[in-house]
Design a protein that fits this description.
Length: about 525
């Protein structure tokens, strides 16, 4: 890392630079070559940098005698030459412009024209070599995986809202993807006891035995789904479980059907597996739900997997048994795997009963990977614990993948999860308290949103999200959200982040007070837009 000089040096500098470095300029990644050099040298507090860039490289610095001496002092103190200072600065800066240079790139050829002689009274340094090496020192481009992956927009908006709150701004955030409740004390106590009892070593890759057994027991008790502990993999988060399921089933070139609006991570995980996401838009007229007809229309010979998420993030929609059974028939007929993401299975209202997709038939069970976890049900998002249940060969493959990718979920955290499953009375009470708060806020938010002229919102039956339609305002949802945050300090996530333009996702995992205040601001914002 280049070091910052202790104080600024008022240096007049003229730089003649290798023309090939103007590539980032041509590609629009930098304003000008002088901007590149100025930005690079800013780390050294050089000022008044003047840059010209003929095809040949030469850097000359004209400086008053006093500052020249100062600069020399600094370079001596840093055991380097002035030229090396500049070179280090440019070297450090170029990668941030992502200048892609592959072996054999003509940009790697050294400049051939002879160097100009430094003018009298100038301190000259550099030749084709140093800056040529600057180009060579640019690391090769990152992988396709890294360049293609999009960071989670929900986490980004949530982080921005939290930063604004921390800076003292009066933000009403509906961006959270996690319960606003703390983990129940008895779960924390169990993890603390495990830590103190020395459960600080690696655990078996697929999870500690009693937890896998408890997970198997709870599937049998809740759904009559009888599985062996060997079919259970405990992993570092439900997100990770989804990724394992996709990696275990999909090859590069395979297609994965993802109904939209979708949870933001599915497409990215599919791409990371080298497979191709195929989206099927299911709008509010369809209750945000996939139908057998839409599913059949999306299937091709390359389709390998369907991702089905009920209750849904971002819409809160839940599928009933008949709807799931009809989709299951299509999956069996076309021999598709199903990633049944049941992460929100316990956050379900209005007397609806959760349905376990795998239990819809023997042929369905053979093809289903069930994802669930502790994050949402027990307010344990930071614990990073997820579960995956699948037929034994798939579960084994997932465990083997996990053995190379993360070894195991955090050992002592698993003991907390075990308490959540074993101490049923306490767990049920904690869940009931959280659920009743969510249900109250769901109804409040739904009623308030539908009072806003131009906004329509379905009453979703699960999770802790509502997904109102704002397409009538004639504004792209992303612009709607940006303006809403800027003008009214209300943080919501645009529907387009979930593959459905024209909607907003509002999480009601927040207080009644924020809901009332935030929706009043949203109403004011919408009224302004209508003018
Ligand atoms: C639909 C869905 N699946 C899976 C997850 C992953 O949960 P976690 O990794 O926090 O256990 C989330 C989290 O937001 C989710 O919304």
């Amino acid at each position: 890392m280049p070091h910052k000089s202790p104080r600024p040096f008022p240096i007049q500098m003229e730089v003649e630079f290798l023309d090939r470095l103007s590539e980032p300029v041509r590609e629009g990644r930098a304003e000008s070559v002088s901007a590149i050099i100025r930005a690079a040298l800013a780390q050294y507090d050089f000022t008044n940098v003047v840059v010209v860039h003929p095809a040949q490289l030469q850097i000359s610095v004209r400086l008053p005698a006093a500052t020249r001496n100062n600069l020399k002092k600094v370079s001596r103190a840093k055991h380097t030459s002035v030229g090396q200072l500049v070179r280090a600065a440019v070297e450090a800066y170029l990668p941030s412009l992502e200048v892609p240079v592959a072996p054999g790139d003509p940009a790697l050829e050294p400049a051939r024209a002879p160097l100009r002689k430094p003018r009298k009274g100038w301190l000259a340094f550099g030749n084709a070599g140093p800056l040529f090496r600057v180009r060579m020192s640019t690391p090769p481009p990152l992988s396709t995986w890294a360049r293609n992956v999009s960071p989670s927009p929900t986490l980004a908006i949530d982080a921005k809202a939290k930063a604004m709150l921390a800076a003292g701004e009066d933000v009403c955030s509906f961006a959270a993807g996690e319960p606003d409740f703390d983990t129940p004390q008895f779960i924390k106590d169990a993890a603390i006891a495990a830590l103190q009892g020395g459960k600080t070593k690696y655990a078996p890759t697929p999870g500690i035995e009693p937890l896998r057994q408890a997970i198997a027991d709870r599937y049998a008790a809740e759904y009559g789904y009888k599985i062996a502990p060997s079919q259970v993999v405990v992993s570092p988060g439900g997100k990770y479980s989804c990724y394992l399921g996709i990696l275990a089933t999909c090859n590069p070139g395979d297609e994965v059907i993802i109904p939209a609006p979708y949870w933001v991570s599915y497409p990215e995980m599919v791409k990371l597996a080298g497979a191709t996401p195929k989206f099927v838009l299911c709008d509010d007229k369809a209750g945000f739900k996939l139908t057998p007809a839409l599913l059949k229309a999306a299937i091709t010979p390359k389709t390998k997997l369907l991702v089905l998420n009920s209750p849904s993030n971002p819409t809160g929609a839940i599928y009933n048994r008949a709807e799931l059974a009809a989709l299951a028939d299509v999956c069996v007929a076309h021999n598709l795997y199903v990633l049944a993401d049941e992460m929100y299975e316990h956050l379900i209202y209005d007397g609806h009963q959760p349905v376990n997709f795998a239990m819809l038939g023997t042929e369905v069970e053979k093809r289903t990977i069930t994802i669930a976890g502790f994050s949402k049900t027990y307010a344990m998002t930071g614990w990073r614990l997820g579960t995956l249940v699948a037929p034994a060969p798939i579960a084994r493959a997932c465990a083997e993948l996990q053995s190379q990718m993360s070894s195991n979920a955090t050992t002592f955290a698993q003991y907390g999860a075990l308490a959540a499953l074993q101490e049923k009375a306490k767990a049920t009470a904690a869940l009931a308290e959280m659920k009743s708060a969510f249900d109250r806020r769901r109804k409040l938010l739904h009623a308030e949103l539908n009072k806003i002229p131009g906004v329509t919102c379905l009453l979703a039956g699960g999770a802790f999200y509502l997904f109102p339609n704002i397409s009538g305002f004639g504004l792209k949802d992303i612009d709607f959200c940006a303006k809403l945050l800027e003008q009214e300090k209300v943080a919501v996530v645009p529907g387009s982040a979930f593959g459905a333009e024209g909607y907003l996702r509002l999480s009601y995992a927040t207080s009644d007070e924020i809901i009332k205040k935030g929706v009043a601001r949203l109403a004011k914002f919408c009224a302004e837009l209508k003018k």
